[in-house]
């Protein structure tokens, strides 16, 4: 559903938010290891998230990445990385699909797409901190 870049971005933000909540800043190597992501690829993603204001960074010996606002929606992350295609694109990838020119799955996909958008819009990075801390969910395969 998400691009690999977006998957890593969400997982990284969730991990960094968990660390930020505990008062820590983290380096990209630690993040990559924690979420099982390739370091060079993740470094570029983190730079992009910082540039777009979804993530903060500090330089120096006590530096690293941190999340200043826990109310960032998952929809905002998806839009920053993958754009609006998930929320408005055709399920079959047709460029001219619309209400007046629907593809074969247009109505069913529109319904699913709306549900996904509502879920991502109402879910924030901060919503997941307790679940992660309690071990009810995880960011890396076991």
Automatic annotation (TrEMBL):
Alphabetized GO MF terms: DNA-binding transcription factor activity
UniProt cross-references to InterPro entries, sorted A to Z: Tscrpt_reg_Rrf2 (IPR000944), WH-like_DNA-bd_sf (IPR036388), WH_DNA-bd_sf (IPR036390)
Annotated GO CC locations: cytosol
One Pfam assignment: Rrf2
UniProt xrefs under PROSITE patterns: HTH_RRF2_2 (PS51197)
Protein's UniProt name: Transcriptional regulator
Source organism of the structure: Siphonobacter curvatus
Lineage of producing organism: Bacteria, Pseudomonadati, Bacteroidota, Cytophagia, Cytophagales
